[in-house]
């Protein structure tokens, strides 16, 4: 599903070039669970931004389902993000003034404007996915009325509502206690099996990485091992 070939990313700070990725190559199969590990400054966040079509590489190729992402414009990248990729972050990023159901409906509302999804279908799909992540009785609550674990479940529901092929989870348990974090990881792994989602998790936690099928370790912008 994912082919990364000699990927580089160089940031320019004035006249200084700062290499974040220095020739990263790997493949990820459809339905695979892959952990990405590395110390701060290893290039993890840069790599995730490129995999999530939030940024473009300086050189090299990133193929998603055979499509070369590297040459796409902003509108094309946005379409790929909306159709194929779901994001789960350390910060839950739920809008505080909306109920968790409305938060989950937002990506579908955007799709509805472009793909003719009815309001009824938007509501039904949001409700279905919220029940699937264990928030069936909390969907009318605002984020501030939910626990950290519940907010992250809401964020996962939002990531899944457009039926993506790929979930990118960036430190998804970073703001949670160990017990709640374990529940969230188990939920993601269950969803991977049930829906055949490809799941990539950036984590500092070796116990979480051990539950992936494979771990890619980055060091100084290079793949140290996989």
Question: What features would you describe in this structure?
Answer:
The protein is α/β, with parallel strands linked by helices. It has a single domain (2-225), classed as Rossmann fold. The protein contains 7 helices and 10 strands. The protein has helices at 44-51, 74-84, 100-115, 119-132, 148-160, 178-195, 206-209; strands at 2-13, 16-28, 33-37, 59-64, 67-68, 85-89, 166-170, 198-202, 214-219, 222-225. It has a 6-stranded mixed sheet with strand order 6-7-8-3-9-10, with helices on both faces. It has a 4-stranded antiparallel sheet with strand order 2-1-4-5, covered by helices on one side. A hairpin with a 2-residue loop joins strand 4 and strand 5 (67-68). Helix 5 (148-160) packs parallel to helix 6 (178-195). The longest helix is centred in the last third of the chain and has 18 residues, at 178-195.
Topology, pairings included?
Elements: E1 2-13, E2 16-28, E3 33-37, H1 44-51, E4 59-64, E5 67-68, H2 74-84, E6 85-89, H3 100-115, H4 119-132, H5 148-160, E7 166-170, H6 178-195, E8 198-202, H7 206-209, E9 214-219, E10 222-225
Parallel strand pairs: 3-8, 3-9, 6-7, 7-8
Antiparallel strand pairs: 1-2, 1-4, 4-5, 9-10
Helix pairs in contact: 3-4, 3-5, 4-5, 5-6
What can be said about this structure in brief?
The chain has 226 residues and is of the alpha/beta class.
List descriptors.
alpha/beta; Rossmann fold; four-stranded antiparallel beta sheet; 7 helices; 10 strands; globular
């Amino acid at each position: 599903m994912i082919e990364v070939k000699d990927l580089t990313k160089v940031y320019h700070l004035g006249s200084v070039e700062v290499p974040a990725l220095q020739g990263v190559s790997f493949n990820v199969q459809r339905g695979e669970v892959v952990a990405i590990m590395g110390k701060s400054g290893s290039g993890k966040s840069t790599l995730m931004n490129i995999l999530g079509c939030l940024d473009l590489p300086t050189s090299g190729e990133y193929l998603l389902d055979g499509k070369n992402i590297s040459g796409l414009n902003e509108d094309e990248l946005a379409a790929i993000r909306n159709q194929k990729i779901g994001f789960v972050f350390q910060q839950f990023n739920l809008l505080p003034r909306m109920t968790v159901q409305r938060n989950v409906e937002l990506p579908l509302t955007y799709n509805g404007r472009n793909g003719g999804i009815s309001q009824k279908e938007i509501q039904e799909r949001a409700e279905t996915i919220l029940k699937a992540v264990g928030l069936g009785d909390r969907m009318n609550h605002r984020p501030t009325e939910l626990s950290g674990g519940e907010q992250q479940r809401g964020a996962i529901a939002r990531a899944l509502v457009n039926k993506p092929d790929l979930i990118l989870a960036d430190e998804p348990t970073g703001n949670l206690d160990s017990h709640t974090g374990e529940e969230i990881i188990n939920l993601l792994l269950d969803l991977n099996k049930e829906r055949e989602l490809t799941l990539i998790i950036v984590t500092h936690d070796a116990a979480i990485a051990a539950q992936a099928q494979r771990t890619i370790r980055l060091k100084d912008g290079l793949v140290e091992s996989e």
